[in-house]
Write a structure and sequence with these properties.
7-stranded mixed sheet, 7 strands, binds S-adenosylmethionine
Amino acid sequence: MPITPERKREVPEDFDRVAPTYDLLTGLNPGYHRHLRASASRLSERRLGRQARILDLCCGTGLSTAAVRAVHPEARIVALDRSSGMLERARRKASLRDVEWVQGDATDPAAFGVEGPFDAILMAYGIRNVPDADRCLRNLRALLKPGGTLCLHEYSVADSLASRAIWEAVCLGIIIPGGLLTAGDTRIYRYLRRSVREFDGVRALEARLVRAGYVGVRTEPMDGWQRGIVHSFLARAPATES
Ligand SMILES: C[S@@+](CC[C@H](N)C(=O)[O-])C[C@H]1O[C@@H](n2cnc3c(N)ncnc32)[C@H](O)[C@@H]1O
């Protein structure tokens, strides 16, 4: 049976429980930070300046926010997450003190007071977890400036047998035991294994973006063990809304 919307709604609470050890576990994953910076740099061909606004959705403890800050040091950043535990960690980071933090649901950021327009939106490891991905993508398009970029930094293994096999091996051999050792809790890591297995393949997610009204949809790869597993899914809001 596929993961239900109800189960997806519990994900932020699962993250509350692992928030204290999240940075430690992701830090052990080679390429994690570099890949977030790659997606942040794919938001724009040039560094976004002080007039630009960037939204970091599902920001967690601020690791993706730090990647955005590193690549676009002058841009104004709004970062949103539903988990109070993850946000508490993010807010403590001195290097991110100028970020505007919002606790809310990524499906409809406007309902939590997030006002567009944004030059760019990064959603790292988020779209897979929202109960209604299509609705979320339509809402995000409405928050973008005409021509603004959305980057979904996300796992997608459905199109490749080899990618699925590597994902299973990494989950069973490293991520789930790592979650047990660092957090003493494997619930969110078992969900991670299953949710990635069930999530859209590359072509299905690209088609979903087109259906949600985006243009210029394309996918960029990562290097390392994540090649063929983690991708930047890039899309633009149309230059003029029809
Ligand atoms: C794997 S973490 C990613 C954090 C960060 N982007 C990074 O790259 O390290 C996923 C985050 O998504 C958040 N999340 C899950 N579902 C959400 C939702 N519906 N609305 C807002 N945040 C959500 C979780 O609380 C968690 O902090």
